[in-house]
Model the fold of this input.
Amino acid sequence: MKKILLLGSGELGKEFTIAAQRMGQYVIAVDSYPNAPAMQVAHEAEVISMLDAEALDRIVAKHQPDLIVPEIEAIRTERFYDYEKSGITVVPSAKAANFTMNRKAIRDLAARDLGLKTADYRYATSADMLQEAVNLIGIPCVVKPLMSSSGKGQSTIRSVADIEKAWRYAVEGSRGDVVEVIVEAFVDFDYEITLLTVTQHDGPTLFCPPIGHRQERGDYQESWQPALMQEQHLEEAKAMAEKVTKALGGAGLFGVEFFISQQNGVYFSELSPRPHDTGMVTLAGTQNFNEFELHLRAIMGWPIPEIKFMRSGASAVILAQQLSDNPRIEGIEDAAALRDSDLRIFGKPTSRPYRRMGVGLAHGDVTEDITSVVERAKEVAAKIKILY
Done:
């Protein structure tokens, strides 16, 4: 049995903890607020600011974990190098965690060091610098905080009048203590995918079937697997994903995002060194192992003979609309009555507008039109009502 220190205890951490528990591992769940989803199923829990290096050092010294598994961006990741030197396994590696928790490091690695095709981009640390960056990039363009999650702080500038508002929104949505944004040229793409990529200590890099997704406010609304795409584009995406994950090192599951243009090919977008929110579609039984089980097996060094596609699937988010310190869920019985479906309620103790509180799931035969599977997942999500 290994002791796992999970840094970040949201819905992805909860599913990972369940996967780890089923395989006999010990999990300490950490987050900045009590009763976070993963804490509800972990062996132990700690509430700290993970941006506080001293607090982070204290809990690492207290628990002496075998592995540190980050689930969020707002962590003092530079401490990971020392933990790794002391013999603790940082997932997927200290370098990978440190680079990918900040969009600047991973974008520079991908575009400048590895030569991957990306949207043109600039950085800005003030509203005036943002204005200069927009002048260079052109309008429309996309603004994102260097550190954020679930689309927070992300917006599209469509006119000069949007620049100041975009800066304020990015600063408000930023996680951590880094006040800097990335400005990206608008890519004229046809669709976007997540390619779940599994690196192993002693085995080849593996790929899950591509996942399609639709976004609003920079956050995913529905995802589906498989995403239908040209074989040429899929192979190009796989080559890019293998190149960047190999450069980062370590073992684990990465969520690698791409823009696909039928005319201009594949653009690298972003990378997360952990299970991906769009990958919750794998909870619909689309694969022999879901993304959380794959992440666990990879970081533990257990062999993964193959990733086998089992059936088509879709997920649709269940979002809160209001602030509440005691949100309550209704409609589970109605959702459960729908055929070929399932759902997950995350158990978040509070709500706010657009906070993800659960996900509707649906599956279908491989011959079923994926659009109808997505609609079924949306129907499941629509049955759930949140009371405030």
The chain has three domains: 3-90, 120-185, 191-387.
